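Most newcomers find our protein records easier to grasp once they have seen one. To make this concrete, we reproduce a full record directly below:

===
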Amino acid sequence: MSLGTLLDTPLLGDPLSRWLIAVGVVIVAYTLLRTARGLVRRRLRLIAERTAFAFDDVVTDVLGATHTISFLAAAVYAGSLVLTLEAQVRSAVSHAVVVVLLIQGALWANRALKTVLERYRKDETLGSSRRTGLAAIGFVGRLALFAMVLLLALENLGVHVTTLLAGLGISSLAVALALQNILGDLFASLSIVFDKPFEIGDFIIVDAHMGAVEHVGLRTTRIRSLSGEQLVFSNNDLIKSRIRNYKRMAERRVVFSLGVTYATSRELVARIPSMLRAIVEAQPKVRFDRSHFKEFGPSSLNFEIVYWVLEADYNLYMDIQQTINLAIMETFEDHGIDFAFPTQTVFLEGGERPPLLPPRSRSEWAAETGPEGASADG
């Protein structure tokens, strides 16, 4: 058999020579696509090194996410154009290539999203809450991206997406009801990120629990308590709670009381508020508010003192309060003023009790009271 005869041998409706041409087209197209990608990436990398723009860096990373199967699918499609294929076969090839290219587009978009978010996350001036927000945005963005690619791929394969979505609507409702806690935590995390009731590093109190925020995730928030253990809160439960954020406190208001004995003279009682004011105003980083003789207590004369610490630091507040307490003790000792403590004094009224009468019989009682008393008694 001659070469010409062999090349004219029909194979699946086309001569062998045309199949060889198609294979050659596939090889050339595949080689050109890979070469072009390499040249473009190298060129963009050189440009990126000389410029501060982020766009060329993103394009370089996106091109790096191009899969070999995508080049092969495009090359096979180019080779199939040389052949005389049946309509069904050509349609199947076209659908397959479109699906591959859709997946490749999803990979490109995913890499672009990841690269952009990573660049923002490396920014040292970016707050901790915004970093958590970037993670949430990345999760939601990828979910929406792959859902859209899946719908486009199904539409390309001939599936009626509208009917499918209508059917999935009821199913998604059931799934949403089953996953409502997880979805609630997810949206709660977004609420924490954008509303920012607290950030990582803030010291907060939630109900009876307190600690520093360590991590804000998509489902839970972790807090390091003062005693060292880690507290894990559901995001949905957390935003429903009353949260006190001490990190954002600029000043600390302090209210404390003390009591002196009732034996303290009226003159000293009148002077005590001014003594307390002088003690408080002598402290640094303090703004005095008021000092008053507040009330007559069950066992003490009570005074109330209010002042502001000009910084939010808790240790500073405790140091100042300790100094004030010691100064009050010293001042009261110098003036002979005694602190009160819970006491009770019982006063007994004295007096003579009437003598007890000896017991009397019925006859003696009748003799004293007369016939009327006797008859009454009888």
